[in-house]
TrEMBL record:
Keyword set includes Methyltransferase: no
Summary of the function given for this chain in its UniProt record: Catalyzes xyloglucan endohydrolysis (XEH) and/or endotransglycosylation (XET). Cleaves and religates xyloglucan polymers, an essential constituent of the primary cell wall, and thereby participates in cell wall construction of growing tissues.
Start and end residues of each GH16 domain: 20-223
Active site: E108 (nucleophile), E112 (proton donor)
Sugar-bearing residue positions: N116
Record's keyword terms, sorted: Apoplast, Cell wall, Cell wall biogenesis/degradation, Disulfide bond, Glycoprotein, Glycosidase, Hydrolase, Secreted, Signal, Transferase
Protein name: Xyloglucan endotransglucosylase/hydrolase
PROSITE patterns: GH16_1 (PS01034), GH16_2 (PS51762)
GO CC list: apoplast; plant-type cell wall
């Protein structure tokens, strides 16, 4: 008994140390079942529940894909999902995890995984919409096979920045530049979280040249980790009631730290395949927020 108690104390101390050393890493989500925070969005019969809803599998076949969304809306927080993507020949399929407000001038923060032929790499595309304006795609290859195991994909969103993480490695930062560069920033429209799997063989794989091979259907993507660490607000709310008081509002989460910027730069150098900020054909003039993207 005494030994057990001591071990517990030692483990707690180690945990605190770990937390200090990684002061600016987002908190780890706790594990809750799907039903606590989420509901199906469409094609309910294509969602399979495993282990009492701790794992959910989305099925895509010729008839339809499917998707789910949070019950609530959130204004700022840390939003993560553990995902295992469609394995084997996934060309033409897109699996997504994103946040979006529900109005016409909507805000949106996207992770989209573009499938590929067996053995060919997935592309992770990210995008940010503010006030209905998107066209901010960035694309990377991942440094692991996302179909073999679960990996975590998360977004830290506060008044200062939107940071995208893959397993705690930052892959993109969109800073609040509304003050200095006049770029709209999502700060007053609560968003829901969405996940989905659908057929997008008109554009997803090699620009739409590789079509979905339906002889491999159904395509299955798996999800875990349905905790939502956000400030819940009604869809019409303009602000979060606890604004400024939550962990993600604190100074250490207002920017990435030096080690995180080093990792981000490494991801940039080694894995980037597309960045709207450097696409001269598309944007003759560099979009204003790209001034900060370049500093990375
Ligand atoms: C972030 O954006 C809001 C609204 O656009 C603005 O009022 C605020 O000053 C900005 N904060 C920072 C740190 O730039
Ligand atoms: C699919 O594989 C091809 C060949 O390796 C590659 O050019 C492409 O970027 C990959 N990903 C997608 C989604 O097209």
């Amino acid at each position: 008994m005494a030994t057990a108690r001591w071990l517990l104390a030692a483990a707690a101390a180690a945990l605190m140390l770990a937390n200090c050393a990684w002061a600016a890493a987002p908190r780890k989500p706790v594990d809750v079942p799907f039903q606590k925070n989420y509901v199906p969005t469409w094609a309910e019969d294509h969602i399979h529940y495993v282990d009492g809803g701790r794992e959910v599998q989305l099925y895509l076949d010729r008839s339809t894909g499917t998707g789910f969304q949070t019950r609530g809306s959130y204004l700022f927080g840390h939003f993560s999902m553990h995902m295992k993507l469609v394995g084997g020949d996934s060309a033409g399929t897109v699996t997504a995890f994103y946040l979006s407000s529900q109005n016409s001038e909507h805000d949106e923060i996207d992770f989209e995984f573009l499938g590929n032929r067996t053995g060919q790499p997935y592309i992770l595309q990210t995008n940010v919409f503010t006030g209905g304006k998107g066209d901010r795609e960035q694309r990377i290859y991942l440094w692991f096979d996302p179909t073999k195991d679960y990996h975590s994909y998360s977004v830290l969103w506060n008044l200062y920045m939107i940071a995208f993480f893959v397993d705690d490695v930052p892959i993109r930062v969109f800073k609040n530049s509304s003050g200095d560069l006049g770029v709209r920033y999502p700060f007053s429209q609560p968003m829901k979280l969405y996940s989905s799997l659908w057929n997008a063989d008109d554009w997803a794989t090699r620009g739409g040249r590789e079509k979905t091979d339906w002889s491999n259907a159904p395509f299955v993507a798996s999800y875990r980790g349905f905790h939502v660490d956000g400030c819940e607000a009604s869809a019409e709310a303009r602000f979060c009631a606890t604004q400024g008081a939550r962990w993600w509002d604190q100074p250490e989460f207002r920017d990435l730290d030096g080690a995180q910027y080093r990792k981000l730069r490494e991801v940039r150098q080694r894995y980037t395949i597309y960045n709207y900020c450097t696409d001269r054909d598309r944007n003759a003039a560099m979009p204003p927020e790209c001034a900060k993207d370049r500093d990375v």
